[in-house]
Write a structure and sequence with these properties.
Number of helices: 17
CATH topology of the largest domain: N-(1-d-carboxylethyl)-l-norvaline Dehydrogenase, domain 2
Shape: globular
Radius of gyration: 22 Å
Largest sheet: 8 strands, mixed
Structural class: alpha/beta
Distance between the termini: 37 Å
Bound molecules: 1,4-dihydronicotinamide adenine dinucleotide
CATH architecture of the largest domain: Orthogonal Bundle
CATH class of the largest domain: Mainly Alpha
Number of domains: 2
Helix content: 40-55%
């Protein structure tokens, strides 16, 4: 559309292709760069397939489909990005490769252009640290599949000029997304706050207190679309374990983020989940065959939900205490990034802060493990006879 800035996207894999599609849907001309010609071809073929499906379903008209597809220009020549006012990078998750790409981009784009990374695990500040003009660098973390997931975490580096944060939020809103602003800390919001969903479930299983089937059923019964184990099988136990390890290391081995031995064993055994036909469940051609839905012991549901959700609430409370994001953005992030049935702070208000604190204190006393230490935010709220204001 006339007047809208041209958007550059580097990396035509799953994420870059999705981001290019969203920008084209919003009316931008897009230049999609990948050093691999076959990746560019695959990206075009996959968009054409998506477009055909959406036209058949009546969601896109044939004209819209044609306009969206023809507004994405694919190339291996990075110099073509010189006309872009925004360039979003979605290449391999390797800091030295990202550094060298952004150094090249700085020599190509105009001084007013904003450069963004879609990294999910690297420090935005450390990428910016190698740039000549770090003040125009920012993180824009989309979720997979990018065209369908509303959440985008906007992550300013320590060096970012704040005017770019407002611009990025406005751009994402114009694209129909739900942007939240997060401090540049390990895992940003979602990958940090969601750790106990997996970690605490694994811990319960490891202790032999409940089976994956029972834990999954309990969490589904509490409103989660999927239980932790079926979700880990879907994500891939190798991928989920790698994220856990990277967050744990980035937090200097804080026990709250300690990865699980039983998960490592599943990875070592090659029980990666759906993709290897075996994880916590068994699969055949992608369908579960181990009876994950068989009737489980509902008497166990209450304590399982209390233990996992109180740990999730504790993470959200601590993220608020440390000013990682506003209360409103923390709630949006978990509802739109991982489809939680409600915001965690609202959940705490519903249970009562005292009840949540008691669960955590009991766990900490029982295990003598710093992993369960309650966030000071919970104690502050109780002292102030207040609750979370969202
Ligand atoms: P992918 O492996 O599907 O695609 C990466 C693409 O980048 C490939 O087509 C590759 O040819 C290209 N590429 C690599 N180095 C390049 C370079 N120097 N210049 C031009 N093209 C280059 O990866 P995916 O899954 O799309 O992820 C991309 C980024 O997005 C990573 O940083 C990842 O951490 C992040 N991310 C991934 C999510 C996911 O669920 N896959 C979710 C959110 C963020």
């Amino acid at each position: 559309m006339k007047g809208l800035p041209t958007i550059g996207v580097v990396g035509a894999g799953a994420m870059g292709s999705g981001i290019a599609q969203i920008a084209a849907q919003a009316g931008h001309a897009v230049i999609l760069v990948d050093h691999s010609k076959s990746a560019l071809d695959r990206s075009a073929a996959s968009l054409s397939k998506i477009a055909d499906k959406l036209v058949k379903k009546g969601k896109w008209s044939a004209t819209v489909s044609k306009r969206i597809q023809s507004s994405i220009h694919r190339t291996s020549e990075i110099e073509r990005l010189s006309t872009c006012q925004w360039v979003i990078e979605a290449i391999v998750e390797d800091i030295s490769v990202k550094h060298s790409l952004f150094q090249s981009l700085e020599a190509i784009v105009s001084p007013g252009a904003v450069l963004a990374t879609n990294t999910s695990s690297l420090s935005v500040t450390s990428i910016a640290g190698k740039l000549q003009y770090p003040e125009r660098f920012i993180g824009l973390h989309f979720f997979n599949p990018a065209p369908l997931m509303a959440l985008v975490e906007v992550i300013p580096a320590l060096q970012t000029d704040h005017s770019h944060v407002d611009k990025a939020v406005a751009l994402m809103e114009a694209w129909g997304k739900s942007p939240v602003v997060a401090k540049d800390t390990p895992g940003f919001i979602v990958n940090r706050v969601a750790r106990p969903f997996y970690g605490e479930a694994l811990r319960i299983f490891e202790e032999g207190l409940a089976s994956p089937q029972t834990i999954d059923a309990a969490m589904r019964n509490a409103g989660f679309r999927m239980g932790p184990f079926e979700l880990m099988d879907l994500i891939g136990n190798d991928v989920n374990y790698a994220v856990s390890c990277s967050v744990f290391e980035a937090f200097y081995n804080d026990p709250r983020y300690r990865p699980s031995l039983i998960q490592k064993q599943h990875v070592d055994a090659g029980w990666l989940g759906r993709k290897s036909d075996k994880g916590y469940y068994e699969y055949e051609k992608g369908n579960e065959i181990s009876g994950g839905d068989i009737l489980t012991d509902t008497k166990e549901f209450d304590w399982i939900v209390k233990r996992i959700v109180s740990m999730l609430i504790n993470e959200a409370a601590d993220a608020l205490y440390l000013k990682i994001a506003s209360a409103k953005d923390l709630e949006t992030a978990m509802k739109k990034g991982v489809n939680y049935p409600k915001g965690l702070l609202a959940w705490c208000n519903e249970w009562g802060t005292k009840t949540t604190l008691n669960i955590l204190e009991n766990l900490q006393n029982h295990y003598g493990d710093d992993r369960y230490r309650p966030s000071p935010k919970l104690r502050d709220l109780i002292a102030q006879r207040s609750e979370f204001i969202i």
